[in-house]
Design goal:
Elements lengths: L4 H17 L21 E6 L8 H9 L19 E7 L6 E7 L8 H5 L5 E3 L5 E3 L9 H5 L6 E2 L6 E2 L5 H5 L5 H5 L5 E5 H16 L7 E3 L9 E5 L19 H30 L4 H10 L1
Parallel strand pairs: 1-10
Antiparallel strand pairs: 1-8, 2-3, 4-5, 6-7, 9-10
Helix pairs in contact: 1-8
Length: 297
């Protein structure tokens, strides 16, 4: 049985899509968007845990700014529809027990795990340091979700793609600060140049250590190649609900290629099967047409 031109073009397109999904076409490299000056160069955020009052204003502002569903509904975790949240816990024991409110969002890591495991290149790090996920390329495989040491990204049921904090890129381009920082009534979230935030944080750490917080520390300056989101902690990272030693997930290229190829094969197989069963009859080239011709003869 021959294959007509339309069917051939369909198969070619599906194979190309499967090749992208399998990592044969490195779509995550050489993006034009990665070379743009966006105004986010050198910008960062500082979360001062000692000042957070757990009001959730940051989470609500994030949802409203990004038009995410259920703006007033609290989520204890971040996912495709909750890009910012506050995790509530306690540190210490007995009379020394104290509440810890930790605001979390994408850290925009210097060495991001999501980028190292993404089989299609949908997750990539731009030249301005922002880690983004291209929704046009994302296939929803959730490798980035599983690999993130901070458990930040999540799959959106609405779009079928993974979504996360974008660092309020549009606002920053206009010269404004992030929605979460603007909404914080306690000054626990500061947005600005990283070098200035680091200087403030180091002075604050010294003050805390001399006033009853011997384990106070700055978190994020060295972790994973440097995070764009820094934390001022009153205690060790583990005591505050953050990983003590976050590590980048294995981005082995062979494993990435094989897992992506398997996903691509799955995506290609089903449409091809349906195409061969439907297209000849639909275009008048199937066995039904030939039987009709023989009958007329």
């Amino acid at each position: 049985m021959g294959i007509n031109r339309r069917t051939f073009l369909k198969i070619s397109g599906l194979i190309a899509a499967g090749s992208v999904a399998g990592g044969l076409i490195p779509v995550g490299t050489g993006r034009a968007a990665g070379s743009e000056l966006t105004g986010l160069e050198g910008q960062g955020m500082l979360n001062d845990i000692t000042k957070c009052i757990g009001c959730l204003s940051c989470a609500i502002a994030c949802k409203k700014e990004n038009e995410l569903p259920d703006a007033l509904e609290y989520s204890p975790v971040t996912d495709g529809d909750n890009w910012t949240t506050v995790k509530f816990s306690k540190r210490g024991a007995g009379e020394a027990e104290a509440p810890v409110n930790v605001k979390v969002q994408c850290m925009h890591c210097g060495n991001p795990s999501c980028v190292s495991v993404c089989p299609t290149g949908a997750a990539y790090k731009r030249d301005d340091g922002l880690v983004v996920i291209d929704r046009e390329t994302c296939i929803g495989c959730k490798y980035c979700v599983m690999s993130c040491p901070f458990k930040i990204p999540g799959l959106s049921e609405e779009t079928g793609t993974v979504r996360k904090c974008t660092f309020c890129e549009g606002r920053v381009k206009e010269g404004r600060i992030t929605a979460c920082a603007e909404a914080c009534p306690a000054g626990a979230i500061q947005f600005g140049r990283l070098d200035e935030l680091l200087e403030k944080a180091e002075g604050r750490v010294a003050d805390l250590r001399s006033n009853g917080f011997p384990n106070a520390a700055l978190y994020g300056n060295a972790e994973l190649g440097g995070l764009r989101v820094l934390y001022l902690l009153p205690d060790t990272p583990g005591a505050c609900g953050l990983p003590d030693n976050p590590r980048q997930a294995n981005g082995d290229s062979i494993l990435k290629w094989l897992t992506g190829l398997a996903m691509g094969g799955f995506l290609v197989a089903s449409p091809i099967r349906k195409m061969f069963s439907d297209s000849p009859v639909g275009e008048g080239e199937g066995s039904g047409s030939r039987e009709g011709d023989n009958g007329n003869a």
